[in-house]
C-alpha cells in the first residue's frame, strides 16, 4: 500500500529533550523547557498504578512495564515504517502480527499522511510531546495514537489517552495553523480484534488543562 504524503513545515525537525527529576521535558526553539504531556497525564492513574505495583510486587511490575513499553515502541516503529513504504520484515513475528492486525484499518481509512512521530509543543498549553501520527482519516485531519493492550479497555478507563490527543491537536494547530478536531485511538488487542475510539479535541482539552494545573501546583509545592 502506498500512501499520499504531504509534509507540513513545523519550522524544525526535532526538539531537544531533557530528563528532569519530574519527568521528560522538551526544549522549544525559544528555550522554554515544557513538560511532556505524557508526564503530566501520568498523574491521572498514579493511584491505580501504585496499588497494582504493591499487589504484584516491584520486581514483577517492572518486568511487565518494561515488556509493555518495548512492545509499544516496536509497534509504533513498524507502523511508521509501513506508512512510509519501508521494509518491515526485520521485526519479530509478534510485532509483525500487530501490524497485520491493524493494516486493514490503516489501508481502508488513511487517505493522507502529514507526519509521523511528530515533535510538538504549545506555548499556550506550556506542554510538549511526540505525536504518533497526524493523518487524514477518511479525508478528515486527525490526531492518531497507536496503542497496544493485553485486553480490551473501556472508554471510562482511558481518559488520559483522549486528553493526550487533545493536547497534540492544539500543539499541531499552534505550530502549523491547521485545525484538527478529530482524535482516534487505534488499539491492537491481544487475542481480540483491533479497537478504535473516536473523540473530539474540545471535549477533552479542559480536562487536560486541569491536570496540567495540578502538575504545576505540585512542582511549585515540591520546588
Provide structural commentary.
- The protein is α+β, with helices and mostly antiparallel strands and 223 residues long.
- It has a domain at 16-49 and 105-218: 3-Layer(aba) Sandwich (Trna Endonuclease, Chain: A, domain 1), CATH 3.40.1350.
- It has helices at 37-41, 46-56, 58-83, 93-109, 159-176, 205-222, and strands at residues 16-20, 23-27, 33-35, 110-122, 127-137, 140-149, 182-189, 195-200.
- The strands form two sheets. It has a five-stranded mixed sheet with strand order 4-5-6-7-8, sandwiched between helices. It has a three-stranded antiparallel sheet with strand order 1-2-3.
- The termini are far apart.
- The model has no long low-confidence stretch (mean pLDDT 92).
User: What does the overall shape look like?
Assistant: globular
- Helical stretch count? 6
Give the strand content. 25-35%
What is the makeup of the main sheet?
Answer: 5 strands, mixed
On the 0 to 100 scale, the average pLDDT is 92
User: In the CATH classification, which architecture of the domain at 16-49 and 105-218 applies?
Assistant: 3-Layer(aba) Sandwich
Please list the strands of the largest sheet in the order they lie side by side: 4-5-6-7-8
Amino acid at each position: 500500500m502506498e500512501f499520499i504524503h504531504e509534509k507540513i513545515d513545523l519550522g524544525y525537525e526535532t526538539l531537544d529533550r531533557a530528563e528532569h527529576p519530574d519527568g521528560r521535558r522538551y526544549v522549544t526553539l525559544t528555550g522554554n523547557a515544557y513538560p511532556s504531556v505524557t508526564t503530566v497525564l501520568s498523574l491521572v492513574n498514579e493511584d491505580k498504578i501504585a496499588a497494582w505495583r504493591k499487589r504484584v510486587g516491584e520486581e514483577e511490575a517492572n518486568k511487565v512495564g518494561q515488556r509493555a513499553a518495548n512492545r509499544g515502541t516496536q509497534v509504533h516503529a513498524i507502523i511508521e515504517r509501513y506508512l512510509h513504504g519501508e521494509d518491515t520484515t526485520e521485526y519479530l513475528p509478534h510485532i509483525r502480527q500487530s501490524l497485520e492486525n491493524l493494516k486493514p484499518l490503516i489501508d481502508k481509512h488513511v487517505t493522507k499522511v502529514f507526519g509521523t512521530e511528530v515533535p510538538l509543543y504549545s506555548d499556550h498549553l506550556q506542554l510538549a510531546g511526540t505525536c504518533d501520527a497526524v493523518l487524514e482519516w477518511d479525508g478528515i485531519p486527525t490526531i492518531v495514537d497507536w496503542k497496544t493492550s493485553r485486553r480490551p479497555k473501556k472508554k471510562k478507563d482511558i481518559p488520559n489517552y483522549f486528553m493526550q490527543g487533545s493536547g497534540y491537536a492544539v500543539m499541531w494547530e499552534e505550530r502549523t495553523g491547521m485545525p484538527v478536531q478529530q482524535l482516534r485511538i487505534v488499539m491492537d488487542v491481544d487475542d481480540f480484534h483491533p479497537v478504535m475510539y473516536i473523540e473530539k479535541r474540545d471535549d477533552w482539552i479542559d480536562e487536560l488543562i486541569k491536570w496540567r494545573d495540578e502538575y504545576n501546583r505540585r512542582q511549585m509545592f515540591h520546588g
